[in-house]
Amino acid sequence: MTERIPCVREGCDHVILPATAAKTGGYCMPCKQEMEREAHQRYIEANRRDVDLYEGITDAVQILKIMYEPRTYDELIRYVPYKNSMEQVYLSLSTEQQHEMKQYAMELIRSDDEDTGKDILLYLVCYHDLPLTAENPELLEREIVYPGVLFKSASGDMRDHLLQRVNTDEENRNHILIMLAYIGDEVVVQHFWQWKQSPPDWASRLYVAPERYTLQAGWELTEEGQRRELFITPSYSLYETGESNVAGRERENLDGAPISLLVPSSTHCPWCSNPFISLMNLQVKHPALHSVYWKFSHLDVQTCLVCSSYSVVHMEMDATGNPIWSRYNVKPDGFDDIDVEEMSVDVLGIGSSTLEVGSLVGEGERAEGAREQEQRRLFHIASEPRQPFHGSEWAMEPSISQVGGHPGWVQDADYPVCPACSATMKAIGQLDGEMIQENGEGVYYMFACEPCQMTAVSYQQS
Ligand SMILES: [Zn+2]
Ligand SMILES: [Zn+2]
Ligand SMILES: [Zn+2]
Fold first, then answer.
1. Is residue 243 located within the same domain as residue 214?
2. In this structure, are 152 and 20 located in the same domain?
3. 416 CA distance to ligand 2 centroid (A)?
4. What tens-digit pLDDT sequence spans the chain (462 residues)?
5. Exposed e or buried b for every residue in 205-234, given b needs 16+ CB within 10 A?
6. Are 326 and 372 part of one and the same domain?
7. Distance, CA 43 to ligand 1 centroid (Å)?
8. Which of 96, 152, 254, 261 is the most exposed place for a label (fewest CB within 10 A)?
9. Are residues 204 and 240 in the same domain?
10. How far, in Å, is the centroid of ligand 1 from the Cα of 1?
11. Distance between Cα 443 and ligand 3 center (Å)
12. What separation in Å is there between the alpha carbon of 278 and the centre of ligand 2?
């Protein structure tokens, strides 16, 4: 039996065969490999160079094309990211540049890079409301039937074609109904109304009634067969001051007004005893709320962040417009089995300990630490509105937080029903989970019923 000898590397207690030692210079295999890895790493660090593909390029279209270009991986190259996000570059496009990007997208679609082409079209539609009227027939021809928002500006001919095709195209019926919902003109509204009155044969093969598809595009049929909008406009981006991820035009408008977001309340949730949080407290006279009928000077959307992630949480207003827990709130099935007392949502920069302090404590008595914590975060509302569908495609990672605008549903559209009057509540805004909590996920959605002066908050995550 050959006697094993210790590895020569300091701190290693492996023993190896003399034959191995002869090959490795006395090192065990793990040590040898580790040393080779380290040497390789040193080589890369010494020889890696930064490559700035954007150097000297100022044309936004060129910049976007470079962003979409596939990169070959090379460990000796570190690509310098562009100084602005893709969203910011899109927002900076002139009308002419938007058309240039549209042509580019169609070329990609024709040359088999359908996914990139579709993404580009989606950004152009959501961020600029660019009509794809001329492109819609070709998209349909190529069986690009999703996302339906791409068809929102389809021609009357295309609409009529889709209204015919929905009867026969079993495979794409779901998508066609959503496309029609986005078109949503008077003719479409009439058809959805007819389908509601007397469901067509194919209706029984859908998961939901045909008229429920209109919710995906942000509207519903009234009892009289009219179109009723389910989200308020205009849409204003909400962002944290000092955040690097502020979209283009909005960054230039950092003078946008400060807004009160994510402020803890002095009252506590009766289900889990966490303090309520005011997700958004906005003066009703702000242009973002010009279409909202609200009796009080402020629209204060409070909720329990823990409980609203399980179930819709409704709030009513007291005589002075302060939110109070609604008598209509119903615990979801199985809620009592969840140990909610153990749960809290640590709102970034506030922390649950500060939440306990609450805002009832007078300024003078407030602990130094708590004051510092509360002053840590500042939020702004953009000074200019953005497109109503800007934040609507969650998967495209737009800046999500907004007041007004079509919701960015993570899952299917899900507008709560007002428990007092049974009307569908209108979406009034949404906050990105990332804004609320470190590593936060999902989206908190805010709703209002104007006749009842009630608010609601729900939550979706992937
Ligand atoms: Zn070793
Ligand atoms: Zn709660
Ligand atoms: Zn109501």
1. no
2. no
3. 18
4. 678 999 999 999 999 999 999 999 999 999 999 999 999 999 999 999 999 999 999 999 999 999 999 888 899 999 999 999 999 999 999 999 999 999 999 999 999 899 999 999 999 999 999 999 999 999 999 999 999 999 999 999 999 999 999 999 999 999 999 999 999 999 999 999 999 999 999 999 999 999 999 999 999 999 999 999 999 999 999 998 865 445 544 454 456 788 889 999 999 999 988 999 999 999 999 999 999 999 999 999 999 999 999 999 999 999 999 999 999 999 888 877 777 666 666 776 654 433 333 333 333 444 444 444 445 688 999 999 999 999 999 999 999 999 999 999 999 999 999 999 999 999 999 999 999 888 889 999 999 999 999 999 999 999
5. eeeeebbbbbbbbbbbbeeeeebeebbbbb
6. yes
7. 22
8. 96
9. no
10. 21
11. 23
12. 13
Give me 324's structure tokens: 């109070």
Q: Are residues 371 and 451 in the same domain?
A: yes
Tell which of 193, 208, 229 closes a domain: 229
Give the distance from CA 252 to its chain's centroid.
22
Ligand closest in space to the Cα of 293:
3
Residue 85 covered by a domain = no
Give 337 Cα–ligand 2 centroid separation in angstroms. 14
Note whether residue 122 is domain-resident.
Answer: no
Q: What is the 3-state secondary structure (H, E, C) of 18-77?
A: HHHHHHHCCCCHHHHHHHHHHHHHHHHHHHCEEECCCCCCCCHHHHHHHHHCCCCCCCCE
Q: What is the domain extent for residue 378?
A: 236-460
Q: Are residues 201 and 281 located together in one domain of the fold?
A: no
Instruction: Report every protein residue that has its C-beta within 5 angstroms of ion ligand 1.
Output: 7, 9, 12, 14, 28, 31
Report if residue 123 sits inside a domain.
Answer: no
277 neighbors 444 (Cβ within 8 angstroms): no
Distance 312 CA to ligand 2 centre (A): 11
Ligand number with the minimum distance to the CA of 452 = 3
310 and 290 within one domain: yes
Token pair, residue 87, equals 């969203």
Q: Which of 196, 229, 262 is the last residue of a domain?
A: 229
Distance (angstroms) between ligand 1 centre and the Cα of 359 equals 60
CA distances from 4 to 26, 31, 170, 384, 447 (A): 11, 16, 73, 76, 74
Is 451 within a domain? yes
Does 296 lie in the same domain as 176? no
What's the CA-to-centroid distance between 437 and ligand 2, angstroms? 16
Count the domains in the chain.
3
Cα 238 to averaged position of ligand 3 atoms, centre (Å) = 26
How many angstroms does the Cα of residue 211 sit away from the middle of ligand 2?
34
